[in-house]
Amino acid sequence: MSGPNFSNSVVRWIDHRLPVFTFMHHEMHEYPTPKNLNYWWNFGSLAGIVLVILIVTGIVLAMHYTPHVDYAFQSVERIMRDVNYGWLIRYIHANGASFFFIVVYIHIFRGMYYGSYKAPRELLWILGVVILLLMMATAFMGYVLPWGQMSFWGATVITNLFSVIPIVGDWIVTLLWGGFSVDNPTLNRFFSLHFLLPFVIVGVVVLHIVALHRFGSNNPLGIDVRGKQDSIPFHPYYTIKDMFGLGVFLTIFAAVVFFLPNAMGHADNYIPANPLVTPAHIVPEWYFLPFYAILRAIPDKLMGVLAMFAAIGVLFILPWLDRSPIRSGTFRPLFKIFFWLLLADCVMLTYLGGKPPEGVYVILSRLGTLYYFFHFLILLPGLSIFETPKPLPRSISQPVLGSGAGPVTAEKENS
Amino acid sequence: MAETQDGATRRDFIHVASGTMGAVGAACVAWPLIHQMNPAADTLALASTEFDLSGVEEGMTVTIVWRGKPVFVRHRTAKEIEEAAAVDVNELRDPQADSDRTTKPAMLILVGVCTHLGCVPLGQKATDPRGDWGGWFCPCHGSHYDTSGRIRKGPAPANLQVPPHEYISDTVVRIG
Ligand code: HEM
Ligand code: FES
Question: Which chain A residues are within 8 Å of B119, Cβ to Cβ?
Answer without folding.
Answer: 153, 156-157, 278, 282
